[in-house]
Specification:
heterodimer, A: 33% helix, globular, B: 113 residues, alpha/beta, Udp-n-acetylmuramoylalanyl-d-glutamate--2,6- Diaminopimelate Ligase, Chain: A, domain 1, five-stranded mixed beta sheet, 5 helices, binds adenosine-5'-triphosphate, binds magnesium ion
Chain lengths: 153, 113
Amino acid sequence: MGPQPYVERYVVQGGVFDAIGEASTQLKSVLKMLGIPSDITRRATVVAYEAEMNLVIHAGGGEITASVFPDRLELFVRDEGPGIPDIPLAMKEGYSTATDEIREMGFGAGMGLPNMKRNSDSLDVRSEVGKGTSLFAVIRFPSDPVQQPVKEG
Amino acid sequence: MKISDLSEFPELEVIVRGVPERDVTGGVTGDLLSCIMAEAAPGMVWVTIQVHLNVAAVAVLREVSGIILASGRRPNEDLIEKCREESLFLGVCASSAFDVCAQLHARGLRGSV
Ligand SMILES: Nc1ncnc2c1ncn2[C@@H]1O[C@H](COP(=O)(O)OP(=O)(O)OP(=O)(O)O)[C@@H](O)[C@H]1O
Ligand SMILES: [Mg+2]
């Protein structure tokens, strides 16, 4: 049995554009508070933000669960939206089904899923059309033991 | 370059002063939020024509040092409020994004840090 993770859960409303980023911003401050290295926090923030954006824009809302283990962060994202018919296609840079109106706001570059993949050590996307989508991302912490800071003065 | 140096740009109107002594590490431009999520590095100044609240969310998450709205685009009220709340520099420039970036580049800012 491993140690119990530190778990945070965020509910994301569908269609509420102004709120995009709230969950990721909260997660970011939690990770900072837990003393997670800043490059890891930055990567986690990208994954969380892109996930959050997709929940709002494509899925009619959903849920993000972040579990912090001693050696890794796991992000589990699920929704009961329309699902993704062709996952390899959706993972391609530049592929987007966003409307023109949404694109004018700067969403819909088709970069979200590729960004998530680039910033996580593993990303698993599962989806069933008409049922929903789930994503599981793992970001591992640096494996070399952290040096104790040397006190100066 | 510091954030306070941005106020000296010709035609740049400062909307939110932010943290004047903060270092500007480089620059990034674009209007697609996911591209900025991918490209922006901490401390960069972001030149865009997007004027809505989500600009601040991306700026804060990517830890950019400031936002310059190009082509004279006026920020939405909620973007101004959010920038105040986050002490994030927000300026408006009449010049196009191309010209704003060229000026920043001439003063030593680069697209990578
Ligand atoms: N949770 C989801 N539910 C349903 N469809 C989704 C979901 N997430 C992504 N998609 C589909 O996959 C496509 C690609 O997603 P991706 O995040 O890469 O780009 P985007 O959201 O369209 O644009 P960007 O993320 O750059 O703003 C989307 O346009 C959409 O069709
Ligand atoms: Mg997306």
